[in-house]
Amino acid sequence: MTEDRRVSDEAIWELTTVNRLRLAELLESLDDTQWRTETLCTGWTVHHMAAHLVQPMVVGFPHFLLAALRHRGNTARTVDAITRRLARRPREELTAALRRHSDDRLDPPRVGPMGPFSDSCIHLRDIARPLRLEADVPARHWEVLMDHLAGPAVIPGLVPPGRIAGLELIAVDAGWQAGVGAPVRGMLEALALGVTGRAVALDELEGPGVALLRTRLLEEATPGPEGPLGKSAA
Fold first, then answer.
1. Residue 233 predicted with pLDDT over 50
2. Residue 117, class by beta-carbon neighbours within 10 Å (0-12 exposed, 13-18 middle, 19+ buried)?
């Protein structure tokens, strides 16, 4: 980052509200076929994603903790299980919940307000890209998010340690830059999707660092002892 652009929690909550309403509007505009379309998060349809977006507002932390214990502390598998259960609800109920809770000021453990904000930006494009829709968040939101993704406070679920080490991320549509090393240039949205594990966005990035980032994503996707979950930083 070239300057101190820290944003207050209050401002993050306000941006998140705007994005949730934008997401609700997008979801309400989709037909049944589009709701059954797979998103950029492998294994999740738009219906699953809608359920995931309301999960923090309708599933309390104690319930989440109990579910995590059942899945031996595996956060990704816990989120997937809760999402699939919530996705049994009708689409109208999910979009109504997203609107009703749009101004909820969540401050989850470990991730804080940036967690729900990150979801509101990234998951909107997880939905819109496969449907070839232009629905997006404002460029300013991507700048705020990229400051977080390239910073020291980002959680491993979004950007694992080492993924962007030795890379210089450069936005071609804004005066934004972070990191030192092999350049990776692209639109803010593509940069954000790329560094959070959406390999589809890498084809829209340029520079010597793209190959390194692609290699790292492939290495991270190699099945471990419990096998891959199939989610891209969801």
1. no
2. buried
